[in-house]
Design brief:
mainly alpha; two-stranded parallel ribbon; disordered N terminus; disordered C terminus
């Protein structure tokens, strides 16, 4: 049994090494500076342009149009912050860190350091109980163990949480802003430093300045409508981009030991690509490729997909890809099933393999 286990693990390491060679040979890990600079300049210009339109429209309900556009642009800044956190933009770690910090803080009002820490833990153990913060206890129960511990209203809520998931995403933008501020204002000696202070200043000025401008130029009702629409759509767009990627895929037990390649492929789901989908999801629809090669520049993920998919087919590794609306249906059914505990969708297909 021991020799068989070692052989399986050695083969798994060889699989990823071979795939990496193919990806490197295709030049897909090279930086795409022009792509990112054009995108950064375009988004900053769009952000400024929206506020010019805001000033031109004045006291009117037509302000809801720039509110919706602002939600789109802020979401795209969130994606750029994500790319910088994964070192996709520049070769220099310092450049990636500071560009991500500035774009996330000054334009999206989000903490780069808080989000990067949380997201890196997710990448290290996607869908693994006790390790992946994205399936930790919260408003929603993502595993039967979490749902089983809830009583009263919490248990009743969990039974229908799938139907409530997307309405709750309307609050996700507000939740991200609050979590950013709470993280940056915590007295943690390990997180003190010049970068953190700058980040706190950027996020605080961005959020307070935003509300101040709305309240100064618009009556309370229109300002509240602008803020509510922008914040709700921002949460829906950003949360709707991350939600389909892992929810409804196998949940990994706390003690399971899985090789890197299968951990990333079997727990991830791709969304059928297309120009609109690629833009709206910030490249996260290529979730399998992104998890296998986190520092791969976003525009290269599309080119990497056929290489990865073909390799997985030859290696006998299940590669999941579905249309966007289909993925949302899977998420809803999965969350309701967790709450009802009517079935067990959480068996990891790798556990039996590593138990020999």
């Amino acid at each position: 049994m021991t020799s068989g286990l070692l052989s399986a693990r050695a083969h798994a390491v060889t699989d990823y090494a071979e795939l990496s060679k193919q990806i490197q040979a295709a030049g897909l890990l090279k930086r795409r500076y022009a792509y990112y600079w054009i995108r950064i300049v375009a988004l900053v210009s769009g952000f400024v342009g929206i506020w010019v339109v805001f000033a031109f429209i004045g006291n009117s309900w037509f302000q809801l149009i720039p509110a919706g556009l602002l939600a789109v642009v802020v979401t795209q800044f969130g994606f750029l912050g994500h790319d910088g956190a994964h070192r996709q933009i520049f070769a220099s770690h310092r450049w990636n860190e500071w560009v991500a910090r500035i774009l996330s803080g000054a334009f999206a009002g989000l903490s780069y350091s808080w989000w990067a820490s949380k997201h890196n833990r997710h990448h290290g153990a996607p869908n693994q109980e006790g390790k992946d913060p994205d399936i930790a206890p919260g408003a929603l129960a993502f595993t039967p163990d979490i749902a089983g511990k809830r009583t009263g209203f919490g248990a009743a809520f969990a039974e229908y949480q799938g139907y409530l998931f997307f309405p709750l995403l309307l609050l996700e933008g507000l939740n991200l802003h609050v979590a950013s501020l709470v993280s940056l204002t915590k007295s943690d000696p390990l997180k003190r430093g010049h970068g953190r202070k700058v980040e706190l200043a950027l996020v605080a000025v961005r959020l307070t300045g935003y509300v101040a401008v709305l309240m100064f130029f618009l009556p309370f009702g229109k300002a509240a409508a602008f803020l509510g629409l922008q914040m709700g759509l921002f949460g829906l767009f950003l949360g709707g981009s991350f939600a389909p990627n892992h929810k409804g895929m196998p949940i990994v037990p706390k003690t399971a030991k899985i090789d890197f390649m299968r951990r990333q492929v079997l727990m991830s789901r791709n969304i059928t690509p297309g120009p609109l989908t690629d833009f709206a999801m910030g490249g996260l629809n290529y979730q399998i490729e992104h998890h296998l090669f986190p520092n791969m520049p976003r525009p290269n993920l599309r080119r990497a997909q056929p290489i990865v998919r073909s390799f997985c087919e030859e290696a006998g590794i299940a590669y999941t890809q579905v249309p966007l609306l289909t993925s949302y249906g899977i998420v809803i059914r999965y969350l309701n099933a967790v709450g009802l505990r009517a079935r067990d969708p959480f068996t990891c297909p790798l556990v039996s393999m590593y138990r020999g």
